[in-house]
Specification:
The protein is built from five helices and seven strands; from the N terminus they run E-E-H-E-E-H-E-H-E-H-E-H. The chain is of the alpha/beta class and 197 residues long. It has a seven-stranded mixed β-sheet, sandwiched between helices.
């Protein structure tokens, strides 16, 4: 899909703020600072539609980005950031859970995991929770370019074993080298029923 239009729609914290239409939505989940904003910006070939931050825990709302008036990315608050209060983390958890449970527009879920580290307990809990509710996510290994070839293989094997998934269910991704960009778009095209270029 050639991206001709991409815009930030709204930062929402509850259902009454969600866009009121039937456009399919692609949800992005992952730890704080895993690279969700860079993932969006790379896919749509924009530098800063999704705001990146070097400060973990910065995204505290669900950010909706509309692409070609055909679908939206929904960037969720990053989980697992210790400096945010327990009360705040619980609030984010409820916000994410409400969306995932109730939103009819939900078409696919990308779970982003930092390829440089072992999946965290939070990553495993999120994956298991999604699978329990029949929302099997596509796992995206971010920052893949920062690993040597040997470590890339090990990291991918580790992720497939941790989550009990096939190698084909994992997308190695780099915002620098653009590795994985086409594979991510294939998932999106299938999810939204797009049959164009």
């Amino acid at each position: 899909m050639k991206v001709k239009q991409a815009e930030f729609v709204i930062s929402a914290v509850s259902e009454k703020q969600y866009p009121d239409d039937a456009l399919p939505e692609i949800v992005l989940l992952g730890r704080s600072n895993v690279g969700k904003s860079s993932f969006v910006n790379t896919l749509i070939s924009r530098k800063n539609l999704a705001r990146t931050s070097s400060q973990p825990g910065k995204t505290q709302t669900m950010n909706f980005y509309q692409i070609n008036d055909m679908f939206r990315f929904v960037d969720m608050p990053g989980y697992g950031y210790a400096k945010v209060s327990k009360k705040e983390r619980e609030k984010w958890g409820r916000m994410i859970e409400d969306y995932l449970h109730n939103r009819q527009n939900l078409s696919a879920v990308f779970l982003l995991v930092d390829s440089r580290h072992e999946p965290t307990e939070d990553d495993r809990l999120m994956f298991d929770w999604l699978v329990y509710y029949d929302m099997v996510p596509v796992v995206v290994m971010t920052k893949y370019d920062k690993l040597s070839k040997t470590r890339q293989r090990k990291a991918k094997d580790n992720i497939t074993k941790t989550f009990g998934i096939r190698s084909s269910d994992v997308i190695p991704f780099s915002a620098v080298s653009k590795t994985g960009k086409n594979e991510a778009w294939e998932v999106i095209h299938t999810a939204i029923g797009y049959e164009g270029d």
